[in-house]
Amino acid sequence: MGTKAADRLVETICRAGIRRIYAVAGDSLNEVNDAVRRAGTVEWVHMRHEESGAFAASAEAQLNGIACCAGSSGPGHVHLVNGLYDAQRSNASVLAIASTCATDEFGTQYFQETEPLKLFGDCSGYCQMAATPAQLARMLPAALQYAAHRKEVAVVGLPGDVAAAEAAETPGAPWLLPSESLCRPADGQLRELARMIGEAEKITLFCGIGARGAHAEVVRLAGTIKAPVAYSFKSKMEIQYDNPYEIGMTGLLGLPSAYASMHESDLLILLGTDFPYEAFLPCQCRIVQVDIRPERIGRRARVELGLAGDVGDTIRALLPMLGVRDDRGFLDRQLRRYREVREKMNAVAAKRGGEGRIAPEYAATLVDRIAADDAVFCVDTGMCCVWGARYLHATGRRRMLGSFNHGSMANALPMAIGAAFARPGQQIVALCGDGGLSMLLGDLATVVQYRLPVKIVVFNNRALGMVKLEMEVAGLPDSQTDLYNPDFAAVARAMGIPAFTADCPDDAERVLREAFATEGPVLVSVQTDPDALAMPPKVEFAQMAGFVRAMTKLILAGRGDEVIATARSNKVAVLLGFQDFSQLKRDYGDKEAAVVMNTVGNIFSGQVVGETAKMLSERFGKVLQKRQSMTLSRNDKSTSISTQMDSLIPASKISTLTQGMFVGAVADSFEQPIEQKIFHAEIVVDSAKVKAETARYEKIPIITDFTDENGADRMQETIKENYDRIKAEAAEIVDKELDRLRKDPVLCKLLPPEQGS
To answer: CA angle 73-114-61, nearest 5°?
Structure first.
């Protein structure tokens, strides 16, 4: 036999620029495996799990353009699915070879038989089965073109006997045809956008991953129209660097500054984003969306103008139509707010934590400081995403990969494997959660086998941290979120990887620097605080109330130590303060109010008197006081000793506290020396800032004015007229409907008999 179909497959993918196949050898893939061996032009990367192979291929595709993975029939197919879902939702150009049993066994429930068309249809853009070598010759170039230009997963089903058969000649082009083109809206649409920009006073740009490659254009547009620039997590590394107009991220992992800017705008321009979290998008302003995929326009937000086009091409065509805006008022306010948010974040990161409970924010800042300027970060889903989003900074050369849309655990390590193959000259850093790493732990062996110089940092909080937080916010006590973990450093060393453990804040920087300076692969297990919380940019009261309910349930379940630990880890961020207990009772009722007061017990004071002052005094309890009195007379001296329970903090003392002073049982870190141990924070009421903020308030616009030409207020008359009109119209509708029912021979039977009939 001459050239096999498997040989032609290897030849074609090599011409398309694919240099390796991530797979687990065996069964129906054996012919492809042997063709790879004989050709020597494509490398077979022996993964320990097909899911890892799909993640690795996704990472390589996102970095280098296109990549390939494979899975054999049955379990190999099923294992591929999760990784391919992630690749599809990440717009990664991945070719997946799904080898199957022989064609004559189709439909017989043969050993390990699966049907690729059904299995992979939902996690790919292209999915076909080649039943003959001639079909394979047509399908393979089409699949490659689809994957490369649509940026989606393309699956080719390949039966084992077809792979072994003699190859057919390719009727069309047997390789990937590169294509470059301009893609922008028509001039008329661009002029409409220019008009909307000219009419708007407060404009915000929000960039997604579709703005990749358009950094210079985005910055120039922002400078021209004086608009702050927010961005999604996926586009952080593309937009943040060298950008004097950036105000951070929004979304579940984002910052209040970006959220506020978008919601205070009267025009929001979405650039290359299909942002999935509708709750973080404003609904009261005009919205324009630019996206190269027209089907994405308007599916998340009420868009007034949708423009189909590449972000860079669109902005370059738009800029000549715009004048330079002078007013920086809105932009400067948002930049100031962003600086304040950053200062608070840095203050949080400066609190390093304690023994065995290193603050994850601090650990993330160390990684950011130590990592190379061109590092590729692969972050696990969960809390690792939070720390990566907030504390890893863009340089223009760094990249960040993760399961940002699919949200799969265990993605960091296999993505780091793909990144290490794709970018052999760059530093690859995997930020792994302990839950994620343990899920696909076996591919540490792949790292060793290929001597991939991956720096693996494990945020070891001994818990499924994000799941725990989600449950608590929903008012549920966390359950089944604690993890029993092995000694990850010991496991890594047993597999041939140098490893370190950082369990003390004082040693964390030294350990991480030593690890990053180690040649080849290395693992660092950072023992982080399991009770650290990641707060979203906007916290709803329902979320706070849910958290309080969860903490109460934990106390009732005898897990009060966990509540105290959480409070200490997060200081007063997780505590509630109320001006007056009576207001709390009024809003929530006696029982609910009692639960909140007993759980929290804090008051921001300020002329607190009456029942609230008395209750506060009682809540602090009493202290045993020893009293001694002496009576002197001409003949004798008598001494009396008595004990008495006195209020620890009298109500009279509480009533004299001034606004901004805090009273209550609060979180505290025993190891930190502070002057006043009753409260672990500082509350400052800055009258000047309050006055300045008040001065910037804008009057609420008058929607309807009920004043007539004589200056009389006719609101009541107007309301009465509208009421009477609606009442009359409703009566008319009822009469018409009753008349229709009476005339209908079927429906008339539903009416009650009329009186007198």
So the answer is: 60
Q: The tokens of 220 are what?
A: 């120039």
Are residues 316 and 442 part of one domain?
A: no
Q: Read off the tokens for 664.
A: 């209550």
> Does pTM top 0.70 for this prediction?
yes
Q: Which of 85, 91, 93 is closest to 17 using CA atoms?
A: 93
β-bridge pairing 602-604 and 662-664: antiparallel
Q: CA neighbours within 13 Å on the CB side: how many for 431?
A: 31
Beta bridge partners of 614: none
**Considering the domain boundaries, does residue 374 fall inside one?**
yes
Domains of the chain: total: 5
Find the helix or strand (DSSP H, E) in which 376 lies.
strand 376-379
CA angle 467, 503, 446 (to 5 degrees): 70
Give the pLDDT of residue 561: 46
Q: pLDDT tens, 525-560? A: 999 988 776 554 444 444 444 444 444 444 444 444
Contact call for residues 457 and 380 (beta carbons, < 8 A): no
Does 173 map to a domain?
no
What is the dihedral angle through the alpha carbons of 712, 716, 721, 723, rounded to the nearest 10 degrees? 160
Q: Which residues does 717 contact at the CB level (< 8 Å), separation at least 6?
A: none
What is the DSSP code (8-state) at residue 633? -
Using CA atoms, how far apart are residues 564 and 281, in angstroms rounded to an integer?
A: 35
What type of residue is 473? V
Residues facing residue 463 across a β-bridge: 482
Say which residues have a Cβ less than 8 Å from residue 736's Cβ, sequence separation at least 6: none
Q: Could you read off the pLDDT of 552-584 as tens digits, one per residue?
A: 444 444 444 444 444 444 443 334 444 455 655
Q: Are residues 492 and 567 in the same domain?
A: no
Q: 168 and 133 in contact (C-beta within 8 Å)?
A: yes
Range of the domain at 594: 541-630+637-686
